[in-house]
Every structure is written in structure tokens, then in C-alpha cells.
């Protein structure tokens, strides 16, 4: 009986992970001064396992990362990639299916009413917004204890659609 329960649990978790995935990430990078800077970020983002393509807009310093299906990436890998190139994220907007935000690591702070299967959300944690924006958000979210803790594996988000 325990084996059957364990098998059902593993299958259920596998199905959840397959449904909870990011399809696109829009990253606005800070500190870029030239095309060599954008090349460094572009190279780091393309090296992430699960990335299908990276498009760069040099006018806005925005990198649009399209991901392969069935990836298991989290916003943390994009932050690490940009920082490994020597820069910082000014904003991160993620497009995913609606199941993604049901993951325990995503803490919904602001929600827009949407019945869409595909949602866009912005990550509001330190390292995913500018320092100035983070200071403002820290004051706004001072009653949310998990926001003040700044756990690298928790993502405080607001939906955009």
C-alpha cells in the first residue's frame, strides 16, 4: 500500500513540475555602456540550459529570453547569469502558465484578475528591481515578513495581466 501511495505521489509531483514552467523572461539590465556589455550578458543567458533564444534591444537594455518547453528554470538563474556577466537586473518580467505561481516559492503580493492560462508577472525582490525601487517596495511591504527575510529561493511577484 505504501508503494502505491509513493508512486502516485511521484507521478503527481512530476505532472505539477511539467505544467509549472516559464516560457519567456524579459530582463532589463543595469550598468551597460556598450555593445560589448550586452554581448557578455547575451552569452551568459544563452549558456543557460533550457534557453532557446535571446533577443537584445540595445535602446532599452532589454533581453528577451525564450525558453524551451518543459524547462524547470526559476528567476534565480537569470539573475545569476546577468550577475556573472558583471551587471545587475533592473526588472524581470516572466511569462509562464498560470500553474507556475502555485509553486510554493512564488509569493503573490499583488494580483490582477485574469482567467488567462498564460500570465505575466514581475519579480519584486532585491536583485530583480533597482535599489531605489527595492527601498520603496520594502516600505510598502513591511508587513510581509517573507519579503524582509530576502530568501534567495522565494520570489515575491505581482501579476501584470
What is this structure's SSE topology?
Blueprint lengths: L1 H18 L2 E9 L4 H12 L4 E7 L4 E6 L7 H10 L3 E10 L8 E5 L7 E6 L7 H10 L4 H5 L5 E5 L2
Parallel strand pairs: 5-7
Antiparallel strand pairs: 1-3, 1-4, 2-3, 4-6, 6-7
Question: Can you give a write-up of this model?
Answer:
With 161 residues, this protein is of the alpha+beta class. It contains five helices and seven strands; from the N terminus they run αβαββαβββααβ. It has helices at 2-19, 35-46, 75-84, 131-140, 145-149; strands spanning 22-30, 51-57, 62-67, 88-97, 106-110, 118-123, 155-159. It has a seven-stranded mixed sheet, with helices on one face. A hairpin with a 4-residue loop joins β2 (51-57) and β3. The protein is globular and about 40 Å long. The N and C termini lie far apart (44 Å). The model is unreliable at 1-19 (pLDDT under 50).
Quick structural summary:
With 161 residues, the protein is of the alpha+beta class.
Report how far apart the termini are. Answer: 44 Å
Q: Roughly what is the average pLDDT, rounded to an integer?
A: 85
Hey, roughly how much beta strand do the residues contain?
25-35%
Low-confidence sequence ranges = 1-19
**How many strands?**
7
* Rg (C-alpha, Å): 17 Å
Order of helical and strand elements: HEHEEHEEEHHE
What about the largest sheet? 7 strands, mixed
Helix and strand composition category: alpha+beta
Strand order of the largest sheet: 2-3-1-4-6-7-5
